[in-house]
Write a structure and sequence with these properties.
It is built from seven helices and seven strands; from the N terminus they run H-E-H-E-H-E-H-E-H-E-E-H-E-H. It is an alpha/beta fold. The chain has two domains: 159 residues, Rossmann fold; 45 residues, no CATH class. A five-stranded parallel beta sheet has the order 2-1-3-4-7, sandwiched between helices. A two-stranded antiparallel ribbon has the order 5-6. Helix 4 packs parallel to helix 6. One of its GO terms (molecular function) is transferase activity. Pfam families: Nuc_deoxyrib_tr (PF05014).
Length: 210
């Protein structure tokens, strides 16, 4: 057994699989994980069979099944929560994965290169894509000011970088969200934080009560 296999296995989730330089990113991420005493697991790992299959429904469902299997075999996860396809929201598949790992009570941490609050991302998206602004709804007695988009949908999750369920699940799992302009810097911070969380928990379990 190699040294990396003795380290906690960490699922590397996010929209990274759709990026043109995905393989290079995952290789760099795995090296960062190794330095933090973690074994990074890419969604591409163990999916060589997919490369020779034709695109379509069955292949897409197989990828989802294989990704789920990888998460089942991992001890923790690092998730990229960058906005996806120029929108305000992150990749929906990654959001599902965060919920899945949270349901298994596994440690998680997140990272992003976009440190704007969620409502700022929504505002920017509507102004850029639809040339419309958010509107302010007069507060009712004792309630906070609310912002609405052009479809009269409330802009939620104040003070957070993404949907409250996404960021909330990561934080409830003990993790934080690392923010940096460079994705490798953001990832390195998140990986270090996750390693501290994992090894700190292990140390606490091994420390006898006085």
């Amino acid at each position: 057994m190699t040294e990396t296999l003795e380290y906690p296995k960490v699922y590397l989730g996010g929209d990274l699989v759709f990026r043109k330089n995905a393989q290079q990113l995952f290789q760099a991420f795995k090296e960062i994980c190794l330095a933090a005493r973690l074994h990074g697991v890419s969604p591409f790992d163990g999916q060589e069979e997919v490369e020779v299959l034709p695109p379509g429904k069955e292949t897409s469902l197989l990828i989802a099944q294989l990704d789920r299997g990888l998460m089942d075999r991992c001890d923790a996860a690092l998730f990229c929560i960058d906005p996806f396809r120029r929108s305000a929201d992150m990749d929906p598949g990654t959001a599902v994965e965060i919920g899945y790992m949270a349901a298994q009570n596994k440690p998680m941490a997140g990272y992003t290169v976009d440190g704007r609050f969620y409502h700022e991302k929504v505002r920017s998206y509507f102004e850029r894509a639809w040339q419309t602004s958010l509107t302010e709804e007069a507060p009712h007695t004792g309630s906070r000011v609310r912002w609405l988009d052009a479809d009269q949908i409330i802009v939620h999750s104040e003070g957070l970088l993404q949907n409250a369920m996404v960021e909330g699940f990561i934080r409830q799992a003990g993790g934080d969200i690392a923010v940096a302009e460079n994705i490798l810097t953001a990832f390195r911070t998140a990986a270090t934080q996750l390693a501290d969380l994992i090894y700190g928990a292990v140390g606490a379990k091994e420390t006898p009560h006085e």
